[in-house]
Amino acid sequence: MSELFGIIGNPIEHSLSPLIQNKAYQSHHIDAHFQAFHVEYQDLETAIKGMKTLGIKGFIVTVPFKAKVIPYLDEIDQTAQKTKAVNIVHMIDGKYVGYNFDGKAHLEALLEDMGIQSLSNQHILIIGAGGAAQSIYYTLSQFKDIKIDIANRTKEKAKILKDIGVNVKNTNVISLAEAENKHIQYDIIIQTTSIGMWPETDKSPINISHLKPGTFVSDIIYNPSETKILKQAHENGARTQNGKKMLALQNALAIEMWTGKKVDYNVMLQTLNEALS
Ligand code: ATR
């Protein structure tokens, strides 16, 4: 029997997950279908119970349910516990287990595009302290001798974020203005806010005009492909990446977990590129 997987969110009409997931099933001969489900706020618990009853083995959770879904799951992994957010759910022995793969997918994409195996000894700037930043920071903070500055508009939120880290002694909380002043010092800059996302593509959280040679700039936004900050980084000779690979890798991780089949994330990356061109 064909399996059914899905994504829950609100709004959900514009999600690209059904397109890229179904493309991956098709190209890897996986007998499954992926469906987007619009869930009303007050119906979340009923929706999860219904999916469990129907035997749906896995689903993605997106805005605004990443934190709200936790009470309705049976277990959550360590990253989800730390970040208080879940974005992938897998049914194991009849139980729904929640995971947060944002950090893992971002790290894999970053290491691959930088062509390195570890981030030890790197000096990193994380811009933002929201949901995505939490998982990314928690994952990066596990590297030995990594130095991380977190810059956020609301400093209090960045201070709370710092506390979820593993090796917090090398983490500093700074303002966006301070980050702009010292941006020349960083090896890697990771932009995790929604600033610069379509349709407000003329915005950037900080101005980066004096990057040190070899700096790598990562923006988790995937639409547009080149945000203002990435464009500026590019113009200043930096290597860059947008959020498409992270998204494709995250979907590949979910499929592998749900079906036991390893899929080539490039199929999804190409589909994303075509859909967003
Ligand atoms: P997500 O889950 O996508 O990370 P979020 O939790 O709402 O979304 O976090 C959004 C991030 O973008 C936050 O770091 C937010 O800064 P604040 O903590 O000060 O709210 C940042 N952000 C969003 N719009 C911003 C803006 N116009 N200027 C500066 N920071 C902004």
TrEMBL record:
SUPFAM superfamilies: Aminoacid dehydrogenase-like, N-terminal domain, NAD(P)-binding Rossmann-fold domains
Limits of the Shikimate dehydrogenase substrate binding N-terminal domain: 7-89
Assembly, per entry: Homodimer.
Broad enzyme group: oxidoreductase
Domain spans labelled Quinate/shikimate 5-dehydrogenase/glutamyl-tRNA reductase: 116-194
HAMAP family with a match to the protein in the record: Shikimate_DH_AroE
Organism name: Metabacillus sediminilitoris
Protein name, as recorded: Shikimate dehydrogenase (NADP(+))
Parts of the chain that traverse the membrane: none
Keyword Cytoplasm among record annotations: no
An MF annotation (GO) of this entry: shikimate 3-dehydrogenase (NADP+) activity
UniProt xrefs under NCBIfam families: aroE
Gene label: aroE
Residues forming the catalytic site: 66 (proton acceptor)
NAD is among the record's keywords: no
Binding site for NADP(+): 128-132, 152-157, 220, 243
Keywords recorded for this protein, A-Z: Amino-acid biosynthesis, Aromatic amino acid biosynthesis, NADP, Oxidoreductase
Any one Gene Ontology cellular component term annotated for this protein: cytosol
Residues at which shikimate binds: 15-17, 62, 87, 102, 222, 250
Gene3D superfamilies xref list: Leucine Dehydrogenase, chain A, domain 1, NAD(P)-binding Rossmann-like Domain
